[in-house]
Design brief:
Oligomer: single chain
Helix content: 40-55%
Distance between the termini: 72 Å
Radius of gyration: 62 Å
């Protein structure tokens, strides 16, 4: 029984395994049918397109650059210009290419000697004019000094006259009354009001001051006191004489005295009466006539002295102004003649140009063209014309012509990689120093439709093999994208107004719409539509028939496109604002350095 059961279970297990195997085989068969159907569908959809070389899209740092050609020049150059006014000729000239040494500079090596014969002749005539102007200026200066001294004397004399006349007035009227009158008449600030005070001086009534109490301690007061005293004494004498006469009369009536005595006393009395009358008259005359006259005379003298002072000051100002004008005129003429004399001397000295610093001698500006002025012995040169250039070859720079389509992207301070044609294996670095504001005039003259801007790049390295004029190219780094998904420029095509890439998949070639960003001379940034690691075709795929007909041509083009140093043009409309461009701003030689192809695709 047990054996029978065991045989039954084994048969059941084998049957279950067979059913499971049949199920898996059926499932595998269905999957193969589906795969073959899909493959056939896409194969028919792609119309038997041939797949060419591919590239693996990768993400990494991406430099946006502009490649331009130019030439090497000295960073700092000393241009020696003709500083002789007008036109002159070159008599002697040092050889071009001569290397000026520090010893030549110390010894004053003559580089150029210009014709100075006309300047020497003018210098002799100018020397005579200079001496004449010097004599005239010396005479005018001495006359001015004499006039200053004379003015001081005249003004001092007038001031003393004013002072003395005021002293006389104060002496007569007293200080207090004098100051009061002068203040009322406005004669204190003399220069402005002296002329206006004439009417007041004439019409003033000095009789009101004929009182010793009103007068100051002066001659007038003293005179008043003397007259008052004389009158008082006369009155006293008259009283005594009158009393004596009365007594004599009484005695004469009693016949105690003789007639002679009476007559004598009467005579004495009469004399005293006349004396009193005379003193009274003298006092009245002084008050009415002498005092006002004397006071007005002294005040008028003071006023006239003030006017004389004003006239002396104005006359002094007039004379000193005339003398100063004559002196200034003579001085200006002398300075003009001296300046002309000095200029002629300087012009003669500038006819001899000596070595200012060590360096290489280059004729003119160093540029050769059909418009360049010849620098040779006997040639005529004008003022401010560049005769020689001495470049400082220890520090070099590069001048490039940036096309107008890139000039807004190039900024001072951006870094650049430089390669010199004569040393292709040497790479130098530099920094943008200056960008021209206007297009290059020479290029604009030769090709009006081509607008390029002169840009100066300062070279960091100091190398002795760099020479001015060497041809070179500079790759200006505009920007760096840290993590950009990149594919070769020729892997992106324009189809029906859209940017597309042809992606190689296990099911065939897929045409995929992408969004692009910046680009350089080799790679373009893909912002949407691709993933890192996907394989993109380097050119648009062809039909299998076309591939068989043009296989050979396709291989030749493939080799050319992958040759080093040649980069395909960026896709039309792709790459936004990226630099990189074609050739050298429309004016270069078209040589480019192939970008490094990290994680490059396989063919």
């Amino acid at each position: 029984m047990t054996r029978k059961n065991h045989t039954f279970h084994a048969a059941s297990r084998i049957g279950f395994i067979r059913k499971k195997m049949i199920l898996w085989l059926s499932l595998i068969g269905i999957i193969l049918v589906v795969v073959l159907a899909i493959s056939g569908y896409f194969g028919e959809r792609s119309h038997n397109l041939a797949v060419g070389a591919t590239f693996t899209a990768f993400a990494g740092p991406m430099e946006i650059t502009v490649l331009e050609g130019g030439s090497i020049e000295a960073k700092d150059s000393l241009q020696i210009q003709s500083e002789v006014q007008g036109t002159t000729r070159i008599l002697t000239l040092i050889d071009e290419g001569y290397l000026i040494t520090p010893q030549d500079v110390e010894q004053g090596l003559i580089l150029i000697e210009l014709d100075s014969k006309d300047l020497v002749d003018r210098q002799l005539t100018q020397e005579l004019d200079y001496q004449s102007s010097l004599a005239a200026f010396t005479e005018a200066s001495e006359e001015y000094a004499i006039q200053e001294n004379q003015n001081e004397s005249d003004i001092k004399t007038a001031e003393l006259a004013v002072h003395f006349s005021r002293m006389d007035l104060e002496k007569y009227l007293g200080v207090g009354l004098c100051e009061k009158l002068l203040d009322e008449l406005g004669l204190v600030a003399t220069e402005e009001k002296a002329a206006e005070a004439v009417k007041d001086v004439v019409s003033i009534d000095f009789g009101q001051y004929a009182d010793p109490e009103k007068l100051g301690d002066g001659e007038a007061r003293q005179k008043f006191r003397q007259l008052e005293d004389d009158l008082e004494l006369a009155n006293q004498d008259l009283g005594l004489a009158e009393n004596k006469l009365e007594g004599t009369k009484r005695l004469y009536e009693r016949e105690f005295v003789m007639k002679t005595q009476l007559d004598t006393d009467e005579s004495g009395y009469n004399r005293r009466l006349i004396a009193r009358q005379s003193a009274d008259t003298n006092r009245d005359l002084y008050i009415k006539y002498e005092f006002p006259k004397m006071a007005q005379q002294l005040l008028s003298d003071y006023e006239e002295s003030l006017r004389k002072l004003v006239r002396a000051q104005k006359l002094a100002n007039s004379k000193i102004a005339q003398s100063l004008a004559k002196k200034n005129s003579a001085e200006a003429r002398h300075e003009l003649q001296a300046r002309k004399r000095e200029e002629l001397t300087t012009q003669i000295e500038k006819c001899t140009i000596r070595a200012p610093r060590p360096g290489l001698v280059v004729y003119g500006t160093g540029e050769r063209g059909f418009r360049a002025d010849p620098i040779e012995e006997g040639a005529s040169v004008r003022e401010r014309q560049v005769l020689l250039t001495i470049p400082d070859t220890s520090v070099m720079a590069m001048r490039v012509q940036v096309h107008e389509s890139f000039v807004t992207k190039v900024k001072p301070g951006q870094r650049a990689r430089i390669k010199v044609d004569a040393y292709p294996n040497q790479q130098l670095t530099g920094v943008i120093h200056r960008i021209g504001v206007l297009p290059d005039s020479q290029n604009r003259w030769l090709s009006p439709d081509l607008k390029v801007y002169s840009t100066i790049i300062h070279i960091d390295d100091e190398v002795d093999w760099l020479k001015p004029g060497m041809s070179a190219e500079a790759e200006i780094i505009i920007a760096t994208i840290d993590n950009a998904l990149q594919v070769p420029v020729n892997a992106v095509q324009m189809v029906d107004g859209k940017m597309v890439c042809y992606v190689a998949t296990i099911l065939g070639t897929e045409q995929r719409v992408v969004q692009t960003g910046e680009y350089n001379i080799s790679f373009i940034e893909v912002t949407e539509g691709l993933e890192p690691g996907e394989q993109v075709l380097l050119r648009a795929p062809k039909r299998s028939g076309e591939a068989s007909e043009n296989g050979k041509n396709g291989r030749n083009n493939q080799e050319k496109s992958e040759a080093p140093g040649v980069s395909p043009a960026p896709p039309e409309g792709g790459g936004g604002d990226g630099g990189g461009g074609e050739g050298r701003g429309g004016g270069g030689r078209g040589r480019r350095e192939a970008a490094p192809a990290a994680e490059s695709g396989t063919v």
